[in-house]
Amino acid sequence: MPEPILWLLTPFRWVMSWLLMIFHEGFTFLGLDADSGWTWTLAIILVTVGVRAALIPIFARQIRAQRAMQALQPELRKLQAKYKGKKDQVSQQAMLAEQRALFKKHNTGMFSSCLPLLIQMPFFFSLYTVLSSTSKAKGENVGIAALTPDHVRSFDDSSIFGARLSDTFLNTLNSGGPTNMSVIVVALVMIVLMVASQFYTQRQLMTKNMTQEALEGPFMRQQKMMMYILPLVFGVGGINFPIGLLIYWTASNIWTLGQQMWVIKYNPTPGSLAEKELNIRRKAKGLPPIGQKKGAAETVVEEAEQAKSKRTQPQRKNRRKK
């Protein structure tokens, strides 16, 4: 990685290495083997949880931006119809200006769904530079950011299922010596899990938590491209990721998937298939549709029944005494 980029990543490298060191020391204090790959794996997973927990406000903002984007789909279609067939530069500039004004009005943008990913990338690349340089640092007996030489040596020698956490799929194939099949198998399994979880997360969003208007909107093509291109990019790039980094990214994707499943189940987009499914579950429990005040429908029925049941009771006539 070029030196200017490494310099820009320095604060993130310190944060990620410090978190990794703190969690590793914590597990060691609890009695786990300091040099075990599973101890380092647990530390990496907790680093993932810490980073993703810190990004929850960004995720909430992303949800709001996505729903705003779906809400303005009818206006975008009108804008497209307005400039349909007008290919001159003036018309194209006018359409882009109106489109930007529309995004500003609804406080959203074309790439709002990518925001958490873009924010997470510096942390990802910082951890990549830390984990991929442990072998070199071990040979020079130096530390990496917050990691001491002892930490570097411990991590570089640690392994799970016979695969060192600092090894990569590509370097193992090009090592020139006997191929460590444990590294190949573990790396492939982690890459498949990483790609599958990322693909399913995007597909779940598109099939269950988007309105019909959004599915037919002008930006649906970009969403479909992202669904296929991003997993492909990370799948190809994964052959050069250390096993430890594959663990981080897979854990991050699983967190994203779980977070999104919770949102889709309990706070779906209005007008989406997920909202219809939620209302079916609420109806089965005797609850009103989401967004409707509890008891509103029951109150109307109850008032009607009360009005119907009100009758004037006949007065009992006093019998004439003989």
Automatic annotation (TrEMBL):
<dbReference type="GO" id="GO:0015031">
    <property type="term" value="P:protein transport"/>
</dbReference>
<feature type="transmembrane region" description="Helical">
    <location>
        <begin position="181"/>
        <end position="200"/>
    </location>
</feature>
<keyword id="KW-0472">Membrane</keyword>
<feature type="domain" description="Membrane insertase YidC/Oxa/ALB C-terminal">
    <location>
        <begin position="40"/>
        <end position="264"/>
    </location>
</feature>
<keyword id="KW-0813">Transport</keyword>
<comment type="similarity">
    <text>Belongs to the OXA1/ALB3/YidC family. Type 1 subfamily.</text>
</comment>
<feature type="transmembrane region" description="Helical">
    <location>
        <begin position="228"/>
        <end position="251"/>
    </location>
</feature>
<dbReference type="GO" id="GO:0005886">
    <property type="term" value="C:plasma membrane"/>
</dbReference>
<feature type="compositionally biased region" description="Basic residues">
    <location>
        <begin position="309"/>
        <end position="322"/>
    </location>
</feature>
<dbReference type="InterPro" id="IPR047196">
    <property type="entry name" value="YidC_ALB_C"/>
</dbReference>
<dbReference type="GO" id="GO:0032977">
    <property type="term" value="F:membrane insertase activity"/>
</dbReference>
<feature type="transmembrane region" description="Helical">
    <location>
        <begin position="110"/>
        <end position="131"/>
    </location>
</feature>
<keyword id="KW-1133">Transmembrane helix</keyword>
<protein>
    <recommendedName>
        <fullName>Membrane protein insertase YidC</fullName>
    </recommendedName>
</protein>
<dbReference type="Pfam" id="PF02096">
    <property type="entry name" value="60KD_IMP"/>
</dbReference>
<comment type="function">
    <text>Required for the insertion and/or proper folding and/or complex formation of integral membrane proteins into the membrane. Involved in integration of membrane proteins that insert both dependently and independently of the Sec translocase complex, as well as at least some lipoproteins. Aids folding of multispanning membrane proteins.</text>
</comment>
<feature type="transmembrane region" description="Helical">
    <location>
        <begin position="12"/>
        <end position="32"/>
    </location>
</feature>
<dbReference type="GO" id="GO:0051205">
    <property type="term" value="P:protein insertion into membrane"/>
</dbReference>
<feature type="transmembrane region" description="Helical">
    <location>
        <begin position="38"/>
        <end position="60"/>
    </location>
</feature>
<keyword id="KW-1003">Cell membrane</keyword>
<dbReference type="InterPro" id="IPR028055">
    <property type="entry name" value="YidC/Oxa/ALB_C"/>
</dbReference>
<dbReference type="InterPro" id="IPR001708">
    <property type="entry name" value="YidC/ALB3/OXA1/COX18"/>
</dbReference>
<keyword id="KW-0143">Chaperone</keyword>
<comment type="subunit">
    <text>Interacts with the Sec translocase complex via SecD. Specifically interacts with transmembrane segments of nascent integral membrane proteins during membrane integration.</text>
</comment>
<keyword id="KW-0812">Transmembrane</keyword>
<keyword id="KW-0653">Protein transport</keyword>
<feature type="region of interest" description="Disordered">
    <location>
        <begin position="284"/>
        <end position="322"/>
    </location>
</feature>
